[in-house]
Amino acid sequence: MGASPVSARLLAVGELAPGRSALLLRLPELIAGLRPGHALHLLHAEAGGYRLRRVAPVTQVDLIAGSVQVALQPRADGGRDSLAELTPGAQLSVVGPIGQPIEVPTDALQILVVTDSEGFAWVRFLVTALATAGRSVVLLIEAHTAAEVPSASLLPESVEILVATKDGSLGHQGGAVDLIAQYAEWADQVIASGESELLSAVTRALRASRKPDRISATAKRRGQGAGVARLQLLVAHEVGCGSGVCGGCTYRNATVNVRLCREGPAVPALGGAASKRGAR
Amino acid sequence: MGASPVSARLLAVGELAPGRSALLLRLPELIAGLRPGHALHLLHAEAGGYRLRRVAPVTQVDLIAGSVQVALQPRADGGRDSLAELTPGAQLSVVGPIGQPIEVPTDALQILVVTDSEGFAWVRFLVTALATAGRSVVLLIEAHTAAEVPSASLLPESVEILVATKDGSLGHQGGAVDLIAQYAEWADQVIASGESELLSAVTRALRASRKPDRISATAKRRGQGAGVARLQLLVAHEVGCGSGVCGGCTYRNATVNVRLCREGPAVPALGGAASKRGAR
Amino acid sequence: MGERLAPGSVSSAVSLGGAHPLRLERPIVTASGTLGFGAEASELVDLRDVGLFVTRGVSLAARGGPGLPRVVEVPGGLLHAIGRENPGVDEVIDRHASAWRAAPCAVAVSLVATETKSLERLIARFESRADQVRADAYELDLTVPCDALNGARWERSLEEATRFIHAARASTELPLIVKVSPDAVSVRALGEAAADAGADLLSVSGSPIGFLPNRSRTGGALAEGLGELSGPLIRPRALAAIVEARGTLPIIGGGGIGSPADALDYFAAGAFAVSLGSALWADPALPRAVLESARRSAAARGLSQIGELAGLALGGAELRVRG
Amino acid sequence: MGERLAPGSVSSAVSLGGAHPLRLERPIVTASGTLGFGAEASELVDLRDVGLFVTRGVSLAARGGPGLPRVVEVPGGLLHAIGRENPGVDEVIDRHASAWRAAPCAVAVSLVATETKSLERLIARFESRADQVRADAYELDLTVPCDALNGARWERSLEEATRFIHAARASTELPLIVKVSPDAVSVRALGEAAADAGADLLSVSGSPIGFLPNRSRTGGALAEGLGELSGPLIRPRALAAIVEARGTLPIIGGGGIGSPADALDYFAAGAFAVSLGSALWADPALPRAVLESARRSAAARGLSQIGELAGLALGGAELRVRG
Ligand SMILES: Cc1cc2nc3c(=O)[nH]c(=O)nc-3n(C[C@H](O)[C@H](O)[C@H](O)COP(=O)(O)OP(=O)(O)OC[C@H]3O[C@@H](n4cnc5c(N)ncnc54)[C@H](O)[C@@H]3O)c2cc1C
Ligand SMILES: Cc1cc2nc3c(=O)[nH]c(=O)nc-3n(C[C@H](O)[C@H](O)[C@H](O)COP(=O)(O)OP(=O)(O)OC[C@H]3O[C@@H](n4cnc5c(N)ncnc54)[C@H](O)[C@@H]3O)c2cc1C
Ligand SMILES: Cc1cc2nc3c(=O)[nH]c(=O)nc-3n(C[C@H](O)[C@H](O)[C@H](O)COP(=O)(O)O)c2cc1C
Ligand SMILES: Cc1cc2nc3c(=O)[nH]c(=O)nc-3n(C[C@H](O)[C@H](O)[C@H](O)COP(=O)(O)O)c2cc1C
Ligand code: FES
Ligand code: FES
Fold this sequence. Notes:
The complex is a heterotetramer, with two copies of chain A and two copies of chain C. By secondary structure, chain A is of the alpha/beta class. Chain A has helices at 28-31, 120-132, 181-184, 196-208, 217-221; strands spanning 6-17, 20-26, 39-45, 51-62, 67-71, 91-98, 110-116, 136-143, 160-165, 172-173, 189-193, 231-234, 250-252, 257-259, 266-268. In chain A, α2 links the parallel β7 (110-116) and β8 (136-143). By secondary structure, chain C is α/β, with parallel strands linked by helices. Chain C has nine helices and 14 strands. Chain C has helices spanning 41-44, 89-102, 116-128, 158-171, 187-196, 235-245, 260-269, 279-282, 286-300; strands at 14-16, 22-24, 28-30, 52-54, 71-74, 77-80, 106-111, 137-141, 176-180, 201-204, 209-210, 227-230, 251-254, 273-276. In chain C, strands 3-4-7-8-9-10-13-14 form an eight-stranded parallel barrel, surrounded by six helices. Chain C has a four-stranded antiparallel sheet with strand order 5-6-12-11, with no helix packed on it. At the C-D interface, β11, α6 and α7 of C face β11, α6 and α7 of D. Bound molecules: flavin-adenine dinucleotide (2 copies), flavin mononucleotide (2 copies) and FE2/S2 (inorganic) cluster (2 copies). One flavin-adenine dinucleotide sits between chains D (36-37, 39-40, 62, 64-65, 85, 87, 91, 95) and A (247, 250, 252, 257, 259, 275, 277-278, 280). Residues 31-34, 56-57, 71, 78, 80, 82, 84, 110, 141, 143, 179, 205-207, 230-231, 234, 254-257, 277-279 of chain D line the site of one flavin mononucleotide.
């Protein structure tokens, strides 16, 4: 049977930004295996016992305390999130990790990360790990208004953060894409996460700059031939079977066919690796 | 606009019997007007803000502490009761009182009350008030098995309690109706509450004993002509408009047409008062 | 999208229907049966916040109802069976017509009939007492059993429903609202038939049927057995029905609205006005809250009328309706 | 009611259907599409606790699916649109037929087609590769769009659905399950048409359609727009459909089962077996838990077979079906 559920104690309910809840869980059993890009499934009980596997990206890991922070994704139906109303001490049933770690080749020293208020939950752990490992990281973050921008205190000081807000209330007025040009050449590796409009805009902006993909050892082992794509998109999904069988999380385009719950969240863009097929 | 909601703090979650939850609420605003027979509407919020007026009978009132105990009725669909999972300190929105006090003529000194594990919530306050006022009260209580019988500690010592269980695990083996004969003549007034099978059985058992109805002052004032019926049935309803307009709680038979949320919960049986029509 | 407007400047009036237009000061309708026949409605809700009050169902002769329980809670809402109980047209007029005349909003009478003959006599009865009766529209309830379909609802047969709508149209010049539920044989086909018959509005806001056994599973949770469903659990299905019906007639959308945010979904799916039902019992201020949030939403999009919110979610291209 | 039995002594096997009986060791069916085509199903659920595994929908040619999002949460369940995506019959047989042969339970293949010609060729394809393919039954999916109804589902037209069922029946001798949802034009009429056509079982377990706008209300929450609903929110409506269909064909009941207690409602409403779908994802042990609670419930009533639970809620008299 798939990974069996683990019981986790809720330590605290916090916020990455206003309205973006994050749960701090006591999770000694799973913590060692968690890497940036991983998510956990929170088995949230509906009325009458029907439980859903709700995808919660891992935003921070504290190996000493044995605690893991996960973000609650906003629901497409705008529904009230009952998990955000739990009080510390509550028990939660968790399964995971879901998906694969995000691959950043060891020789990629300058990393550009582009995100928005929804995508931030998928890159916080990555940016923190890369910066702590001494790589130079630039984070472009886009939001409608200043209030939606996560606080810089959530990331290591060494990370260079540029903010763009639609209403100009903070940083550059406009979208993160306006700021990409100056970093496109500089970056060895680019990672984008957030609304689909942002992902397409970043892909278009980078298509112009012709840097070759980097070939890395791990990429070969995983039969992905042409190495890690220079641009990786982190695609989110909300809920599903988590076992690759329902087709609910399949991201498909001309070159890729990725099941986000198995091979996601990273999807190679700009003709990177050969189609990442579900290996069996 | 109808009675406006009052905010009540949840002091404790208790049990009248296993699986029969009762909430202790801090409710200074409403407490003075509460009488046996009254219920409160708990405005329980469903997902997305849709709130229901859920009927909760008042089981005990503590005038000094300003606290009111109400019982959570089991749901017909057997659904999990999210109110029973609230933790002390939670705020609840309450409207009421709903319905009318149960009328027991002052000259009725010997009262027989017949109930089951579901009906007990509707008679606890009444039996306590009558016994404290010095009347002699006999309570016949029926349950499938001993575990479902509420503990005697919930009632004043002066109340004489006889138990009947279907499986004979406690008291008489069989139904409460088997025990009525010895009290039918003795009782000046009979009140029954619980499943419809019990209500019909009690009505049949009492039809035999021909005691006249008692005429009381209050009955005249309320235009009920022939005085308080000797047998009153307390009929429960789960949820509804609470304002007498939706028709969801109408108890109708040859002689009565009562809207439980307005004229209930007591319904005269055995041709008591003239049809209690919604006064307008 | 135009630039932002001040919410206050957004007009809330909507004028719906062609040959017999119905003008509502506010795009808010009360669902039949949830606020009674009239006399007691304003005890619960301030009708000044409402555009159209729809009465509880009225039939030619009195209709009795089933025993208790008639309304039980289910996950996400209510299961209920009142059986369109009412004292009959004359009794209702005697006691409630004065409340209709005094109402600060438009009033529609909900017509209940199980065959066309009594429908025609029911409307004739209302029209014959026009001196006392102030009705701005009739709502024809297609979610009522039809004798010819041995108890199945009118909306389950396109043929019977069409005949029923024509009978109503031929009996009155007042604006005619045809009310259906997502259980209709095809909400789109019924909308087209209603438009062809000259009806003015389609109210896609009815209750689908439902059933639950009682806890001991030896009978139904309701005395009646089968019942009707209300509340959030029917919202996604109701919204799909509104999308299916788009373009046949101007739509009043409802069934499952629990909050102002829910109501915006119904405008976005194609409704020009929203019907609020069982949510009103616990939230009598909901009409005003829905009005304000619809104003804010229109203002933020630079729209000067709430009616322009209708169908925003469907964009230009007709949403591929495969339902 | 007979006196109590020991739960262990209650038999769980059911043999359903007349001319082509389908024997299930356990009255538990997995809903198509929720456990995949076969190869990976037993990674999630122990198929020894299941009576019938129904594959994800398979069509003659490969079908692509819509963009993301394809599955979103709604109050009380899920809204989803996968578009019956699959690699086509040959690809599925190549990769999953071995898993079907090894399955410790009966296997039914779910047939997806938008017109009868390709349905006939699809079944012929399966029958021509009978040496590799072990299928104990076919499930004909009437909740798929039908070309002749410009995209509306087969189940929305009694005429098209009847022709479709006859085409399937004429193409195979295997037990034939006809799968419908509460959106069917009339679940009862479809059950009768299926029985007349010689089908063996009616699975009243499909997803009704649903819609929700996205949060900014400028498009749908799903890329596809209209989608399908699963989970507890469809339970009361699914149970009413089961009550409506009672007596036409033996019924597999499902759609909205979240717990063993829920499953007992479906037996009580008339089902001989229950279909478990999206609840399996988070509760893989649900089949065993449902089996045990059904055994206990039958034993408590002195019934020696779980199948005897079917229709208990409807008592002797046919429940007045007015739906
Ligand atoms: C043309 C085509 C389109 C498909 N579209 C989808 C889809 O949109 N969503 C979906 O869930 N499944 C799609 N599939 C099938 C999909 O790859 C798996 O069947 C599905 O993801 C479930 O995995 P599985 O267990 O069936 O097979 P897996 O264990 O995932 O193996 C997939 C197998 O299917 C074949 N395959 C998968 N993808 C492709 C491809 N892009 N091109 C060629 N062959 C491929 C390969 O032979 C591969 O071995 C498609 C398959 C094909 C051939
Ligand atoms: C024959 C009949 C059967 C009815 N059955 C029901 C029912 O099952 N459920 C229901 O909700 N409503 C029933 N009613 C109507 C009901 O009494 C009210 O209309 C309803 O309760 C809502 O109250 P209201 O605001 O309309 O009128 P109210 O303010 O409740 O006044 C009710 C009026 O209806 C008449 N009435 C009510 N009950 C009876 C009766 N039993 N016999 C004769 N006249 C009566 C009286 O003139 C009375 O003044 C029935 C009415 C009649 C005449
Ligand atoms: C108690 C009750 C009584 C109802 N009576 C009627 C009625 O008389 N006529 C009618 O057309 N609809 C009736 N309905 C259905 C409502 O008009 C509405 O279609 C349904 O409740 C769905 O809307 P909601 O989810 O907003 O409540 C009734 C609903 C309830 C809950
Ligand atoms: C992700 C997903 C994929 C589905 N795919 C199919 C399918 O391929 N064929 C089919 O007949 N039903 C399909 N269904 C519908 C299920 O078989 C079932 O009818 C529905 O989920 C209701 O049952 P439930 O509430 O128990 O999940 C799918 C459901 C889901 C959630
Ligand atoms: S969630 Fe079902 S395939 Fe990924
Ligand atoms: S609950 Fe609506 S009339 Fe009593």
